[in-house]
Specification:
The chain is α+β, with helices and mostly antiparallel strands and about 700 residues long. The chain contains 26 helices and 27 strands. It has an 8-stranded mixed barrel with strand order 18-19-21-22-23-24-25-26, surrounded by 6 helices. The protein has a 5-stranded antiparallel sheet with strand order 2-1-5-4-3. A hairpin with a 4-residue loop joins strand 18 and strand 19. Helix 14 packs antiparallel against helix 15. It binds ligand C2E and calcium ion (2 copies). Ligand C2E binds next to strand 19, helix 19 and strand 23.
């Protein structure tokens, strides 16, 4: 019999009679292999509300609600695989021409036609039926729709152990042969799956547990022996609150897992690198100590705790000289040694940081006795150290600040420790000093000092006092040393209280020029009387840094009519370590013009006697600290005597300063000092007091001649 001929020749070669189909109470359709409607009967027309002509040659999907669109191929496939599930009636939601959804019960079977295989579809309106099966069927069909659209591998097994839903992804995931599905044996499926897993036992136990408890939901991660990872979700399948089966859903998360693993590894690596970077960023490269950043971080954290917090700030004294005299390598070695000692003093509970240069800081948290630690630091650091063969004693000044109710930030603590450290320097170094609030007031005073000093320079309040220097040969005053004074509100401020401020602010340039001008003008007549006489003026390194210094000095000498050969400039040895080479050049220019250079405070710095011959100096002034070691005049003071002999043998003149007793004067004269200076002869006096100072000196000398030394 011939059906209506369509694009593809379809001839139903079964025993169906066309009339029989036409008259059947159930709707009947024939679909070609691509899902096109090839035949419909009158019941189908009625059920869906279309005319036959409207349906023929059209995709069958127009008769199904959207969820059912994918079902055709699946059913077709199942029928092709001869799966028993394929020929069972199933529920679906149809779509009436007017848009209304219709509950359907569908039965399919394959038929052979000339063009190949077609599918015969019997459709029954399930809407009026109330049998308990229909809801279940509907649920199953909806599930079917889900199965088609998800990428998870899903299998649904009814309580009776029948597979009621399954999708291709499931088959693919487990490489499952269709025969296994067709066998309808869930235990075989479970075994098949378990065989592919790294831990089959676990899976089998899980399945058994889920079988035993139909309400149970589970989530597991299964590792395949081939390296894949699959997530398993299992939950009961419910229809109208009744559990009708169980849904097993498998999701291949291998790539996600790999990506996660990779991400985690990357994160770990990053964290490691960040840690290293952080370490580097927080570390002082020379000493390996914490740096300022880490110190601040730790201090801030400590201040959040209720524990006692102390900050010990220390600065090496004269470290610059170590660097300059012995070289940077030695300086570095010294810093490393210092940091090693510091860490030993502090132990693991404190943080030792290097703030830069020769400045170190210690943070103590929870320490009840900061004084003991501070004392230990001072004595440990001050022990002699051998750096490149030279034995040295690192000097230091230590300031201690402790957390108080008032201090909230680490920078505040540091500032306080800094002030205390300055106080320690002033207190004579190699000691520690606690911060006290008065120190802040002192700091304020210092700032006011600069402002006041600037005004003093402008108002001409900087004056000069003169102290006589006596020649050992001639036993008379041959020189005056000019010493700056600040006349302030009727008081005389000594230079120790303002020279440092003047150097820091640069005001020393003006002050130095003023002292030189006044000294030259006031002493010019006295100097003119005898070419042996001279005037000595102190010069700071800051002044020498100015390139026109030598020129200015010579200008002033010329302007005041003083012979440069009667002018002595006193410098301390630190000026020779100045990085600016022109400093030495300036001194050489001045010496060429006849001016003499004296090395002041000799013996207090780092320079060895051996270095003396390389320095552009004419005179050394032995520091008063050596002179004060002389009490009786019979002591053996090899350092003092060798200094004098060494300088003399180099052709330098030697002046001893700070002479207060006749015994000291005698001793120094007997050991070859060329000139003597000190309160014994006269204190520094204003210019008008010079004649009196000369008379006092003469009296002291006369008395000296009567002094005979014991032995
Ligand atoms: P200095 O150059 O070593 O000056 C000697 C200091 O020792 C002077 O203190 C002087 O008064 C003091 N002195 C003198 N004889 C004795 C004594 O027998 N016993 C004691 N105990 N002290 C004695 P002064 O005038 O207070 O000066 C202190 C320092 O200030 C000077 O040390 C010098 O380094 C600096 N200074 C003074 N005037 C100037 C200046 O015009 N320019 C620069 N750059 N520095 C200056
Ligand atoms: Ca001096
Ligand atoms: Ca001196």
């Amino acid at each position: 019999m011939n059906f209506h001929r369509l694009g593809a020749d379809i001839v139903v070669g079964t025993g169906f009679g066309e009339d029989l189909l036409e008259q059947a109470p159930d709707a009947f359709l024939l679909l070609t292999a691509d899902g096109t409607i090839a035949f419909v009967n009158s019941a189908a027309e009625r059920l869906f509300g279309y005319d036959r002509e409207e349906l023929l040659g059209v995709q069958h999907t127009i008769l199904l609600s959207e969820e059912g669109h994918g079902g055709f191929l699946r059913v077709f496939g199942r029928l092709g695989r001869k799966s028993p599930a394929g020929s069972r009636p199933f529920a679906a939601v149809g779509l009436h021409r007017d848009g209304a959804e219709v509950a359907l019960e569908i039965t399919c079977s394959l038929v052979s036609v000339d063009a190949g295989t077609a599918m015969a579809v019997a459709v029954r309106d399930a809407g009026h039926r109330n049998d308990s099966d229909s809801g279940r069927r509907l649920a199953v069909s909806l599930l079917d729709a889900t199965l088609e659209t998800t990428s998870d591998g899903i299998v649904v097994v009814s309580n009776e152990g029948q597979i009621t839903g399954i999708n291709d992804q499931y088959l693919k995931l487990w490489s499952m042969p269709p025969e296994l599905i067709a066998a309808e044996d869930p235990t075989a499926l479970v075994r098949f799956i378990a065989n592919q897993l790294a831990d089959p036992e676990y899976f089998l136990q899980k399945v058994a547990a889920l079988h035993a408890d139909s309400f149970m939901q589970s989530h597991d991660v299964l590792e395949f022996t081939d390296g894949r990872t699959v997530e398993l979700y299992s939950r009961p399948q419910k229809v109208a609150d009744q559990i009708v089966g169980r849904i097993w859903s498998f999701r291949d998360i291998t790539s996600r897992r790999r990506a996660q693993d990779q991400a985690r590894r990357a994160m770990d690596e990053l964290a490691e690198q960040a840690g290293k970077l952080k370490e580097l960023a927080f570390q002082d490269p020379l000493t390996g100590l914490a740096n300022r950043m880490l110190f601040n971080e730790r201090a801030a954290a400590a201040l959040l705790t209720p524990d006692p917090v102390h900050v010990l700030l220390l600065d090496l004294d004269d470290f610059k000289e170590v660097n300059d005299v012995l070289g940077h390598h030695a300086g570095d070695e010294m810093l490393v040694e210092i940091s090693r000692r510091l860490q030993k003093c502090v132990g693991p509970h404190g943080t030792v940081a290097r703030l830069g240069g020769d400045e170190f800081v210690v943070l103590l948290v929870g320490c009840r006795d900061a004084d003991t630690v501070a004392q230990r630091v001072v004595s440990t650091l001050n022990a002699p150290v051998s750096i490149e063969g030279t034995l040295m004693r690192p000097g230091l000044s230590l300031g201690v600040a402790s957390r108080d109710v008032g201090t909230e930030t680490s920078s505040e603590l540091l500032r306080q420790a800094d002030l205390a450290m300055y106080a320690a320097k002033e207190a004579g170094k190699n000691c520690y000093v606690h911060f006290r609030p008065e120190m802040l007031a002192a700091l304020l005073e210092r700032t006011q000092l600069t402002a006041g000093l600037r005004r003093a320079v402008e108002l001409g309040q900087i004056t000069v006092h003169f102290q006589p220097v006596i020649s050992s040969d001639r036993l008379e005053v041959v020189q005056f040393e000019a010493l700056a004074r600040w006349e302030w509100e009727g008081e005389l401020v000594p230079p120790d209280e303002f020279i440092e401020t003047a150097e820091r602010s640069g005001l020393i340039r003006e002050i130095g020029a003023e002292v030189l001008r006044r000294s030259c003008t006031e002493l010019a007549p006295w100097l003119a009387e005898d070419p042996v006489r001279s005037v000595a003026v102190n010069v700071s390194g800051v002044q020498l840094q100015h390139r026109d210094f030598a020129e200015r000095v010579l200008d002033i000498a010329a302007w005041s009519g003083v012979d440069p050969r009667q002018l002595v400039l006193e410098v301390t040895e630190s000026v020779f370590f100045d990085a600016h080479s022109h400093v030495i050049g300036q001194l050489e220019t001045l010496r060429e013009a006849g001016i003499r250079v004296a090395l002041d405070d000799f013996g207090t710095g780092y320079s060895s006697l051996g270095r003396l011959q390389d320095l552009p100096v004419d005179v050394v002034k032995i520091d008063k600290s050596f002179v004060s070691m002389l009490h009786t005049g019979v002591e053996k003071l090899p350092i003092l005597t060798s200094m004098i002999h060494m300088a003399s043998s180099l052709g330098l003149k030697v002046t001893a300063e700070g002479i207060e007793t006749p015994a000291q004067a005698r001793y120094l004269m007997d050991h070859g000092c060329d000139a003597l200076q000190g309160f014994l002869f006269s204190r520094p006096v204003p210019s008008a007091g010079r004649p009196q100072a000369i008379r006092n000196s003469a009296a002291a000398i006369a008395e000296l001649e009567g002094v005979s030394l014991p032995g």
